[in-house]
Each structure stands twice: as structure tokens, then as C-alpha cells.
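tl;dr need the bound structure. longer version: we got a ligand (N-carbamoyl-L-aspartate) that a collaborator sent over and nobodys looked at where it sits. i said id run it. heres the input, straight from their email, havent touched it
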Amino acid sequence: MPRTTLDVPHAPGYAAPPAMRHLLGIEGWRRDELESLLDRAKAHLPGAPDTTHLLRGKVVANLFFEDSTRTRTSFHMAAKGLGASVLNWTHTGSSVSKGETLLDTARNIEATGPVAIVMRHRSSGAPHLVAKHVKCAVINAGDGTHEHPSQALLDAFTLRQRWGSLDGRTVLIVGDVLHSRVARSNLHCLKALGAQVVMCGPPTLMPPGLESLGAEVTYNLDAVLPRADAVMCLRVQLERQEQAFLPSTREYARLFGLNAAREERMKAGAVVMHPGPINRGVELAPAVADGARSVILEQVSNGVAVRRAILEVCTA
Ligand code: NCD
């Protein structure tokens, strides 16, 4: 992973996270590096000392070639919280429709002077390519079915907030693992932080090789559910499916949906997570999404603090 670790000064009183030039993925991170970034994110929670001096006068460019609600607004809020101005570029209404290439778009955005480009693209590896051709920091906000590092970091942050440590905890990731960059980044992140990761979904939506990455794989949700300390439901990504992977969403909900009856069989204190957007009534029943175990909106709130820490260390 093209990432440089440097010694940089940080605000006194906080552990110094490793300084990164780019954040392209979680694969390859060491536990101490993850922990130091997650510790740093605590300094960006609401009520923490003002951090608007960190990027005052600087610009962060959001470059979103794919739709987004949470990630784009979260990076926007994070950049503003560091005092930066934000350039919000989206593919709709841009010269992409005139045939402009990814690199031309990225280089032209860079020429306007941002300190970081936060980018989402439907092709796996797109941010890696851009990172080779620009001088500013590149932060991957989701590339195809590959990685979504900031999501995994905010998920880990939310679990650490509850549990302190992830050691010995079991996180069950349920759903369309095949198409999920969230699942891939989470697998790397959760394993590195000491959790056990169980992946569950229909066989057609489970990629090969998960065991070799350290996950336990099962196709039987009901059997594994009572063991989980956290259940992370994934959206069935119909927009990425070129072929029919499922007989129907109703069938999917029956076998893999987290409904009220299943929720009752979860461990005491176990939490329900979802990266959003939720297909209500498919992977998650509305009563569970909005119920007492749900930390879904905590994930969103924590996302801002975690992304402030990411922007801070990428631009240090
Ligand atoms: C996810 C994504 O875009 O990868 N959402 C998000 O960023 N919070 C998951 C999804 O689209 O299902």
C-alpha cells in the first residue's frame, strides 16, 4: 500500500497517529497504526477542543463518481470541522458526460489547489491510479467492490467506544459480501484489532478466499447469530449485479434478513450495525434498524470524527 509513515508533530496530549500521504485501503495496516488513528479520532468528537486551525485556508476536494449520502456529507463536515473549504464535485453535471478521462478530471481538480482529494469510483483501484498521478493526498471513499477504508475505521471506532477493545469479540457480517467494499475493509480492520470475523450470506454472494483472509464462513444465519457480539448487515447491491444472484429479495429476507424474531436470539448487549443505505425490509427489518440494539446513527456520527482524523493525518 503506497503509504509513508513519518514523524509529525501533533497537538500535545494526544497519541500521534502515523502520518499518511494517501489512505487507499486497510489491508496491510498494523494494529498499532489502526489504534493510533482511532485514538486520534477521539480528539475530534463533539465537545473536543477546536480544531479549525488545522486546515484553515486549505481546500479539500470531494470527487464522487458514484452516488453517496453519508460518506460525502461526512467528509464535507469533517473538512469543515478542520477549517477547510470544500469543493464538492460529482459526476452528474460534469464533463465526464463529454468523455473526459478519470485522470484528466483528477488532474484538473488538483490544479485548483486542494490539499486532499477524497474520491469514490465504481472501478476498483481507481484511487490508486489517481494517487500515482497527483501530488496531493488521495483518500479512498469507496472503490468498486474493493475497499472502503474510512467506513471500516468508523465501524471499528464505534465498536471500541462500546467495548473498549475488540479482542475476543465476534463480529458477524451478513449479506452481499461479494460486492461489498465495506465487508473487505472491515475484515482487514476487525481482524487486525483482535476480533473474530464471521461472514454469512447466500453462497452466490460469498466470494472465494474469505477463509484465507481469516474469516469464518457460514451460510446459516440462525446457527451463528447467538454467538455474535455485533451483527453488521450489508445491503444487497443490485446495481453491481450483472447476473441474477438471488431468486428474490423476499427469499433473501426470509433466509438472511435480520428481523425482530432473529434479533431476540442475539446475545444480551449485542449490537446491530449497517453502513447504509438500508434496504428496509430486505436485509434489516425497520423495527430492528430503529431498535434498541441499533448503533447505525452512532456509526454516522462517529464517521465525522474519524474522517477528521483521516484528513488530519493525510495532510500533515
Ligand atoms: C456503502 C458503500 O457505498 O460502499 N455505503 C457507505 O458508504 N456507507 C455500502 C452500500 O452502498 O451498500
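gonna send this back to them w/ a short note. The pocket of N-carbamoyl-L-aspartate is lined by residues 70-71, 142, 148, 151, 181-182, 235, 237, 275-276 (CB under 6 Å).
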